[in-house]
Amino acid sequence: MNFEFNLTVEELKKRTDKDILIRKPLLDKDAKEYQTLDEGDKKALIHLAKAAEFANLIYMKQDNELNLEFMNFLKEEIKKGNKQAELTKILFDAQLGIIGMDSESNPVILAKNVKELPGKAFYPSDLTKEELQNILKKMILNGEKEEVKNILNQRTIVKRNGDKLKAFDYTLEFKEEFESIASELEKAAEVSTNKDFNEYLTLQAAALRTNDPMLDAKADKKWASLQNTPLEFTISREQYADLMTGSVIEDEELKELLQKNDITPVSKDSIGIRTGIVNKAGTDNLLKIKHFLPLMAQNMPLKEKYEQNISSEEDNLQTMVDVDLVSLRGDEGSYRGGITIAQNLPNNDKPSLTIGGGRRNVYHRQIRTSSSKEALERRQKRLNATLNPELHKYYNPEADHWFTIGHENVHSLGPKSGTEALGKYKNIIEENKADMGSIALLDCLTEAKAYTEEEKKQILVTFGADCFLKAKPDLSQAHRVRTVMQACFFIKEGAISVNDNGIININIEKMVPTARKMLTEIIEVQLSQNFQCGEKYIKDYFVWTDEIERVSKKLKEIDKSLNGMIQTPLADYLTSLE
Q: DSSP letter at 360?
């Protein structure tokens, strides 16, 4: 294909400027965290870093069928001295693709005549939602139930097969990359110092080589049990990118056929890899909250109506680690308007949870902490421009970490099955649940001495002050959509207000009750297992109000950043070694 640049040199220079494209540095090769590792773990980290590089290739293949071709085009143009190609390559590497999204929810399209697709490259690029629905109906009626199951499975790539469709498992579609990752994991397991970690690496290597979901389950189960390991390695499988699979239940006839044939559509997994070094002090602080998990489960709304992953008894199936990051690759490292600061995995659709596996929270130290002068100045400008001065004393960036701890733990609470029926709204609603649970449970956690009254106020004010975006997102951005919904809901309930000058005020006493009210509504939606119910809920609160717009205008004035990029000096050094 002949590519034509979509962004001018002037626009590219703007978008790659250090104040517009924020740099997020991970561990340096001189970092004490790396230098103090045992020699065996240093050697293992070389192989883990090399394994992670293959995630970029897999992710780009899943994201857009033109990604690799465009990347090679850019490399050839750069060899010719093309400045436009050099600048475009910076953005391509940052967002890991030919199309991304910036922090103001504008699409960043690097080549002309390329468009975003709801099915990414999981499905044929010319396949519409309506055609998918019609093909699946015909296939089910033709007795091809098992193939339809594969098409709507989270671990397949779908291709045309005449007037039908055919699914190919990831282990086949990405055989070369998976084999390379598996080989590096086995080499790492030969030298790493931790027996449990080595067992996980071996199990994960086996799962990458064979089309058997139960091998994935065994690897996930072992990974979720890891607590006292010096190194971190995760193959993440998240479902936010695929907006095609969930659309099948929008057709009532197809929905009925799927239900009759016991077929549950599960959105496709985007592959990412995280490598890092476990931070013991940070992890010890996280573990202080672990024994409060049964209390949190006991205080969830409507708990008598569902089964959740954490029981009200003492639970041992939740581990948590704080990690100094070496690399984020693939879905983990594609900076598209933001980057995750923590994860709770495996998700409810993964088979490890059916064989007694637990869940694991991993927190990203380098993403959440930024002490650069520029970052501190941006934060203070935001506070001065948007938050009632009387509340500044309660704003604490560390409180956002405490809030995130609650968010990730609440992912393990609430209904653990049936949410696939919410289709494309499932992820938005789940992320909303995790946020509201983190706030709604603050009273019981404060009473239990998990937080002081002062810390509770800091969490509430920090959350409220940060509950505003620079621009209205689209439905593909689950994390951002739920932020708009929360701002709308809290304003409606009088817990948050915005004056005519765009200054946010927070009624601290109303924050927890408001969050509990929203959390209860969210769980009712999840329990409904009804697409229309989920759709109505989103439409009711995904409203860009006048108050939100007033804050948005101020945020745009004081924060000119549009995107970011991950910098990985230690990983770059490790992958250069023989």
A: E
